[in-house]
Amino acid sequence: MQNRFVLISGCSGGGKSTLLAELAARGYPVVEEPGRRIVTDELASGGNALPWVDPAPFLRRAVDVALQDIEMAKAHSGWVFFDRGLIDAASALEALTGEPVLHKICSVHRYHRRVFVTPPWPEIYVTDSERRHGFEAATAEYQRLMETLPALGYDVIGLPKLSPSVRADFVLTTLGGCLTSTA
User: Fold this and answer.
1) Closest to 23 measured CA to CA, from 182, 160, 176, 155
2) Which ranges of the sequence are coiled-coil (predicted)?
3) H or E element in which residue 81 lies
């Protein structure tokens, strides 16, 4: 049942991956961000499906990877935490191309009703070889997601600007802890 699939979304550079690392350290299955995996693959192979080179193919691939991630996560019991996912990719693809993919795909493939979002946090925002966009673009992405998630029927839960450990406690407490880790 997919209601145990918990999406961590929000502002790029807001601490999602660090939170997921904390949850993984506690024994919970986590799914790494599709976009970062694609960028790593494309940079290693000399490919062009990169958000700063050819964003539409990058986003189409991110949708495909997110769908595969959902299928693979079904093998786990208990909570499974996703660093971004299908909604992030489909929302960005629709915003970029106008292709009406968001509601069609995301109405069939659902995450837990509560989606946790990282707010813009300029004090920790950094760019790197895989995140080349600036804070302004990250904030625009956050605003788009803050409109998209409720429109898809999700309860958006803002994550506090606190340590990864406190954030993980917050997520697990908010979820009610009725499903446990596999550790």
Assistant:
1) 182
2) none
3) strand 80-83
Residue type, 103: H
In a domain, 180, yes or no: no
Which is more confident, 97 or 13? 97
In a domain, 182, yes or no: no
Q: Which of 116, 109, 160, 103 is nearest to 10 (CA)?
A: 116
Distance CA 77, CA 5 (A): 10
Region for residue 11 given its phi and psi (left: phi exceeds 0; alpha: psi -120 to 50; beta: otherwise):
beta
Task: Answer yes or no: pTM beyond 0.90.
Answer: no
What is the tens place of the pLDDT at every residue in 67-123?
999 999 999 989 999 999 999 999 999 999 999 998 889 888 999 999 999 887 656
Burial class (CB in 10 A: 0-12, 13-18, 19+), 27: exposed
Count structural domains, the chain. Answer: 1
Q: Give the domain range for residue 151.
A: 2-175
